Amino acid sequence: MKLHPMIAALRKHKAGVVLIALQIALTLAIVCNAIFIIGQRIDRVNRPTGLDESNLFLVTQQWVGAPSADTPNGVAKLDAMQKEDLAALRNLPGVASVTPINSLPLLNSSWNGAVSTKPDRKFSDKGDNVRTTYYFTDEQVMSTLGLKLVAGRAFNAGDVQHQGFRDNPPRPIIMVTKALADKLFPQGDAVGKPIYVDGSSSPSTIVGVVARLQVPSTGTWVNGFTWNATLVPTRLNAGFARYAVRTKPGQLEAAMKAAAPTLYKVNPLRVLDDDSVKSFADIRAEAYRADVGMAILMGVICLVLLSVTAAGIVGLTSFWVGQRHRQIGVRRALGARKVDILHYFQLENLLIAGSGAVIGIVMAIGLNLWLMRLYQMDRLPVVYTLIGVVAVLVLGQCAVFVPARRASNVPPVTATRAA
């Protein structure tokens, strides 16, 4: 089949050809980037936090009329109050372990800083000064959060200190995640090595390395240190406290219901609202609600665009078939088979869709660069563009099949009479 007559025929319908090609190009550009965004959101939602997330819940509470954390006496009283709460929660039926902690992965409440292998280093993301998030906790953190120790040892009760919320005492020992340890000590010998927290001149010795622990924030600004976490064996003393609770299998709901009444029995002068006791499943769902919503929205946009483009191809091809009855009839009278007519319209659509795809590739890259500049989006991988090209070409062939088949079924006599 020669292309010259086909191109000549398309030149007679320039407006329709240009509109369909541009529609295909716009669809390709938007669909490629939308599918890429969907993929990124799904990856974010499904990435593991490092926790054993089942049978885990968090209690956040605030004391009313609590002592000030700015005086040593007030800090001591707050610590005693926190110990009473921990003892009460640990004695609940169905509770396996409890640890005080300032935050959890996905909670979007974080204490961040930087650690270095050298003292007195000001913050930067370069060299041996690495950004991290801090989890202040105690010796039950491993069992409560379900963390995996890959080197060294976990905290014991003798390691745990306490401090006022605004204090910044020396931190003799710490644990770090493997991601952070590998950045500070690429040779893999982090255990026993000193590091310096937030530009301190006092060393903190790494006693253990955990496999993985995600930072609390889910924002894009933490992409550079998502797995860089530092565990500090310290109870923070302030007017509020958080407790992570691990229950025995099947005891989560009962323990969550019993947590607030138990704490009120210890000290009724506190605030525990409806959101104060949350399972980690609820924390995860809340953290990624926007990502899931964005993925659904992008999916709907893709479906609408593809449907509109397909409808446009069907409509335009049907219109052209109606206008070309005489041409079809002549070709059939000269011996053209049904399959030749079918292939003619399919090839014609392939030319239009191919032209639109070429323009769409350029538009997809341009749109991605614009999103990268405005929203810190990652670069669009080539595979997404290739998938998009294949998708619009297949869509075009599917959309043109029905009107092309109808054209191929036109009897030669009827076509020539209609002309």
From TrEMBL:
Transmembrane residue ranges: 294-322, 350-370, 382-402
Domain ABC3 transporter permease C-terminal stretches: 300-412
Localization annotation: Cell membrane
Residue stretches making up the MacB-like periplasmic core domain: 34-259
Alphabetized Pfam families for the sequence: FtsX, MacB_PCD
Chief subcellular location: membrane
Membrane topology: Multi-pass membrane protein
Keywords: Cell membrane, Membrane, Transmembrane, Transmembrane helix
Family from the record: Belongs to the ABC-4 integral membrane protein family.
The protein's name in its UniProt record: ABC transporter permease
Organism annotation: Rhodanobacter humi
